[in-house]
Please model this.
Amino acid sequence: MSDALPVETRGLVKRYGEIVAVDHVDLAVQPGDVYGYLGPNGAGKTTSLRMLLGLIRPTEGYARLFGRDPLADGAKALDGVAGFVEGPRFYPYLSGRRNLELLADYDEPNSRGRIDEVLELVELRDRAKDKVGGYSHGMRQRLGIAASLLRAPRLLLLDEPTTGLDPAGMRDMRDLVRRLAAEQITIMLSSHLLYEVEELCNRVAIIRKGGIVYQGALRDLMAATTSGYVLRAGDTERARVVCLAQRGIESVALDDGAIRFSADEDAVAALSIALGQARIGITALMPERASLEELFLGLTGGESSDHDRAAVA
Amino acid sequence: MTAVAQVYRWEVAKLLAQKRTYLGLGSAVLVPIIFVVVLVLQTGGPNDVPLGRYIRDTGLAVPFVVLFFMSIWGFPLITALVAGDIVASEHTNGTLKTILTRSRERSQVFTGKVLAVATYTVIIVFAMGIVGAIAGSIAWGFHPLTSLSGTKVSAGHGVALLFASLAIYALPLAGIAAFGLMLSTVTRNSAAAVVGALMWALLMQLLGVLPGTESFRPYLLGTQFDAWHGFLRIPADWAPVIRALWVCALYILLPLFGAYLVFLRRDVAGE
Model:
């Protein structure tokens, strides 16, 4: 069981009548991943996470957490797993601390001993005696993280953890995710915010209309989108001549004071030496990659909500 | 503490933190007090109901008379208020997914909720009975009780009969609670479940008074609210008591079983 993946799904399907919410999704989250589950609103992210947590039953396929199937193993499948879907929810008429006490008593083993520690971690200790009904959205999100951390999880499943937070709250939440990742907690977070995934995640799955359109290392995805290089030099015209004469530098074009070309890395390295030997100062020489946004739009057939675009802009 | 006991303890704690619980409990104890106050202020009495004629003879008669009046819709409403809400409100608040993603099985959560509703049901009946007896005793004294057979029983014996009657009275109420809990689970809508359970109780009462229902009247849930009459006869008439035991068991267990199956397999999705 110890070598089982934190998250593994095979052929996961969820249908609601004619609607296919999740369509044969295969996921494999490795230990230590900060795994981004990216897709526009309504793509099937939350439904997938619900199936992982055993809240809904797959129509086909299976989901396993550390090798355990929530359908077959019930709550035992959630050993070492914590998280929330569609935002954390609490009893509004109980205080933050009472809510955590309740959840700690629902844990096996009982996790009451960690309450102060997790409240401190999410900076809610001062408000712990207040009823959750009076908490702001950001405080509830933080309490949700605290409730998850009570279980000392090895795997954290977070559904849009920064949604609805103000910029400071989003920054704090991301800092928290980074800190948790540094503690070797495997994290799977869904998001429709491209820059968030780019900032936090090492691996990503992109879901569109219930189906996975890309899964793998974010680094590879970004590298695959490298479409060329852009060069800015002190003497643009002479630099262009050097580029044209250099082996391996192709499709050289002038564009708004910059030189764009396509080349492999070795050719680019040789070019930089050639420019130096020609005593042409380089002010910028960088790979020109499509943004994740552009890539995402390509992969998902251009479907991105206005909210997505606003968030990326 | 076992897992079910933990869940039960928290279900009770949640009930104690909600206004509707106190609304129900408050109503259950206010009705006999208001009843006594009104009878103190006027001369007439509920002579047509069991023990109504003796209400000013002893405070012990008060809870028996109130049992009759509250069986029509008072107790069903107070019971449905909590039973119809206990699962549905968790769906509405989204807290069901919060507790189902910890280490407790669905069966344990469901059992804890059933036990909490049962506790509430028993408490409201006994709270009414005890407060009614105290209020009545303050007004008219703590004297021997006249049984339905016309013979007097000592006040101490009367108290024992009262507790036995309250216990058997709680059974049909538990039947309504079970129906409310089933609706709460199936509809995921608190208001629909509360109203539905009340309608179920009223339907049972209505069927019991319609002509032509005599053949199955003994097996209606509403009829079981009169089972305590058996205790108040000298010697005791066990037939209605025993019938109430098995009839109510069916009215309790069947909806609970249905609710259990739904709760176990239900997709906990968005509200």
Remarks:
- Chain A has a mean pLDDT of 88.
- Residues 226-289 of chain A form a domain with the Alpha-Beta Plaits fold (CATH 3.30.70.1510).
- Chain A touches chain B through 35 residues (CB under 8 Å).
